[in-house]
Design a protein that fits this description.
Length: 166
């Protein structure tokens, strides 16, 4: 389909193929209070995530993104070495943050009540997870930490390490 558009006041004519849709990007100022709420919690030692562009995606486009949920280490998780065990998920459990979960009932999922030590802490971590993993801050994260990166956030600084993946 031939469209006539303008780009910076310059006419554009031709076949314009729409790219893949991605969430509307939000500014760093929208992410700051969510991160600060988690950093201000005295029981949280560190948290982080992995971000990269896949090298191969089974024929689909290779698109930069955050891969999986964020992980959160609290003071009671000091001995947990596998960060995957510390992931914050809407429907999975965390060893010290607790879980909300859901169960299958007939033909639909039903949310379970929160189980754990501090629902407000869990919700703050979940809100940060949803923001980072949700795709609305990809430009901010890519600009700040680069591609193929494993990020660890602590109260005294942020560590970025190269992330080796397939």
């Amino acid at each position: 389909m031939t469209e006539t558009k303008s780009f910076l006041g310059i006419p554009v004519v031709g076949d314009i193929n729409e790219g893949g849709k991605r969430p509307k990007q939000r500014p760093i100022e929208d992410l700051a209070p969510l991160m600060q709420a988690v950093l201000d919690d005295p029981t949280i030692v560190e948290f982080g995530w992995t971000q990269y562009t896949p090298y191969f995606n089974d024929g689909d486009p290779c698109v930069f993104g955050v891969r999986g949920e964020i992980w959160v280490r609290t003071v009671t998780d000091q001995d947990v070495d596998d960060k995957y065990e510390l992931e914050v998920s809407r429907y999975g459990g965390h060893p010290s943050l607790g879980e909300r979960g859901r169960t299958w009932s007939g033909s639909t999922y039903v949310e379970k009540p929160y189980e754990g030590p501090d629902e407000a802490r869990y919700d703050r971590c979940l809100a940060l997870n949803d923001a980072i993993e949700g795709g609305e801050f990809l430009d901010v994260l890519l600009d700040a930490f680069g591609d193929h990166a494993e990020i660890t956030v602590r109260k005294d600084g942020i560590q970025v390490e190269f992330y080796q993946h397939d």
